[in-house]
Design goal:
Layout: H1 4-9, H2 30-48, H3 55-75, H4 84-93, H5 95-113, H6 119-145, H7 151-176, H8 181-205, H9 207-213, H10 218-223, H11 227-235, H12 240-247, H13 249-265, H14 277-285
Helix pairs in contact: 2-3, 2-7, 2-8, 3-5, 3-7, 5-6, 6-7, 7-8, 8-13, 8-14, 11-12, 12-13
Length: about 290
């Protein structure tokens, strides 16, 4: 979906990397969706002050993540790249995609039938998921139309995909767990910012892989502004987790600054504030 070939063709040293089929990740890749998403499901309990999440509610949120994952995985298979409308049609014709969509809807309907969800809450959840899909597609479509996407465009794309994914997972659980309306906005915004912090940390960790796979990346967008550091990072045989900070100190500092702006926006609420520590913890765990 993202015309990565256009973006990466403008970067130095592209000829030094193996030329693989362009990636068209919607959310940064299937593994990234589950790493961030499942981590987010557990974090929601802390942010909301809940001691546990109902199993059916948890499974509904997980079903949503599986639905998004298949969307992303399928789009990655479309080669050569096609326009957005064609990809949308391709997605709707895919059997597993239809099964994932039906799985989410059927699970929500079963919860409604059993009384776990009210009719009003069922409508809210289906609207939340529909809004996510439409917003993410629109963001990807707009990004694809940019002739020479830069750092600002990549950040905007990730806010409307990765950041929105965090907000959507939180919104689903907020409704299922009947979190008071007055508390939902704070938790959902905090999740959006925390997911952006995680996305940047993940981009640093996977910078060489993303370069080779032509995946949109905030880390690569920053490195593109410093060609000397870019060459050192993508040309190094040392794992990027270990080498990024040493090989690209200027880019590393800028990336921390970008992540810090999201983390600083997380409210100092006694529960939601725990989300501010998650990206920093992720940086530490991965050795970044």
């Amino acid at each position: 979906m993202f015309k990565a070939a256009v973006f990466f063709a403008r970067l130095p040293f592209a000829e030094k990397m193996n030329r693989l089929p362009p990636r068209t990740h919607l959310m940064g890749g299937k593994r990234k969706i589950f790493d961030t998403g499942v981590f987010g499901l557990e974090a929601w309990k802390l942010a909301s002050g809940r001691k546990k999440v109902g199993s059916k509610n948890y499974l509904l949120a997980e079903s949503f993540l599986r639905y998004v994952s298949r969307m992303d995985d399928l789009l990655d298979q479309v080669n050569p790249p096609r326009v957005l409308s064609e990809k949308t049609g391709y997605y709707k014709k895919d059997m597993l995609s239809r099964q994932r969509i039906a799985g989410f809807v059927n699970r929500a309907r079963a919860m409604k039938s059993s009384g776990k969800l009210s009719g009003e809450d069922f409508k809210k959840i289906t609207k939340i998921v529909g809004d996510f899909r439409r917003t993410a597609w629109k963001a990807q479509e707009g990004f694809e139309r940019v002739g020479k996407p830069g750092l600002a465009e990549v950040i905007a794309l990730r806010e409307s995909t990765s950041g929105l994914l965090g907000r959507t997972v939180s919104a689903i659980l907020d409704v299922c767990e009947r979190v008071p309306e007055s508390e939902r906005g704070l938790i959902e915004l905090a999740f959006s910012d925390a997911f952006m912090g995680l996305q940047i940390a993940d981009d640093i960790r996977d910078v060489r892989e993303d370069f080779a796979n032509r995946t949109p990346s905030i880390a690569l967008g920053v490195l593109a502004q410093n060609p000397a550091e870019m060459e050192k990072v993508v040309g190094s045989g040392i794992p990027s987790v270990i080498s990024f900070k040493r090989l690209a100190p200027k880019s590393y500092k800028l990336l921390l600054g970008i992540a810090g702006k999201y983390i600083e926006r997380i409210p100092a609420d006694k529960n939601a504030s725990v989300l501010a520590a998650i990206p920093a913890l992720y940086f530490k765990i991965t050795g970044i």
